[in-house]
Structures are given as structure tokens and as C-alpha cells.
Amino acid sequence: MTIGDIVEQYSVTRTAIKKHLTILEEGGLISVRKIGRERLNSLEPLGLKRIDNWLRHFHEFWEERLNKLKEVVEAEEKARPERKSK
Hints:
Elements: H1 3-9, H2 14-26, E1 30-35, E2 38-43, H3 45-79
Antiparallel strand pairs: 1-2
Helix pairs in contact: 1-2
């Protein structure tokens, strides 16, 4: 995608898009290839994979803790005496 392609889809200036793309390129999330006067921006799968791996750590962290919390809550509910309705 070129900067022009992106600008057409969003109500953002070319300058703002260029700044965002530069940051993404510096972070290894996109690559830029010049073809004539145009610069084609493409996603970099390896960069996205690194983000996925990083986020997976947090997903596993919270999933484990939330599962433990669920077990504790369910155990407390079972241990609580039942209330009789009036």
C-alpha cells in the first residue's frame, strides 16, 4: 500500500500517515520498498509474530490467574450453606 492508498481510507493527513508508517518501519512491523516514485508499504510477518509472542505471555499470565480465581469463587460458593427462600 502506498501512503496515498492509506490517506484515501482515513481522514488523516499524509504527514500523519507518514509519521505512523515511519514508526512501524522502525519497529520492524512493516517494510518499505521503492518502486519509481512510490513507496510500497507491506506488513512484516516476523515483526507481527514477535508482537504475538510478547502478547501471548500476558494472555497466559492472566488466563492462569483468572482460572485460579474462578476455582476459588466456585469453591466458596459450594462451601456456603444454601439459603432457604421464604
